[in-house]
Amino acid sequence: MAAPKDLGIEVIGVPEGATVELDLRLESVMEGVLVTGTARAPLTGECVRCLEPLERELEADFQEMYSYPDADDRSRDADTGDDAEEEDRLFLEADLFDLEPVLRDAVVLALPLQPVCREDCPGLCAECGARLADDPDHHHDAADIRWAALQGLAETMRDGEKDNAPRERGDDPQEK
């Protein structure tokens, strides 16, 4: 089957028209037809950390009951009193069932919310946008203004190390 439009989320999804392989099992039961299946489809998207394109395979399992059109008449005798469940029921129409809403729910729920190209993807530099995986030693010498006072203190500490060199007697200004 060809993938319908918008089968995914903003950063990853099944491309429209891509082949979705379905493995279905149909069982006739008293109330209708129980459809159990697995959908396999290619995914395309981008890494949320470094924005590189990525491609994956998705496998999503689903199970749904499609009721016979006259199932309403049968269920009135055994009223469950649950109106919300009544609204979510799917019905067979002329011995056919629409699998798209079930497939859409199964696939979208199986998608990774934060897809990454690899688990340890370092992402992009917050200052310049460079891809950190391409240059692991990437850094900027510009100091954050909030840390400027501490950087100045660190520089005076380094200068003070020079002052702590061994002195000869009489060189200490506090001895006088």
UniProtKB/TrEMBL annotation:
Lineage top rank: taxon: Bacteria
InterPro entries with a match to the protein in the record: YceD (IPR003772)
Residues spanning the membrane: none
Protein name: Metal-binding protein
Disordered: annotated span: 153-176
Organism: Streptomyces antimycoticus
Biased amino acid composition, Basic and acidic residues: 156-176
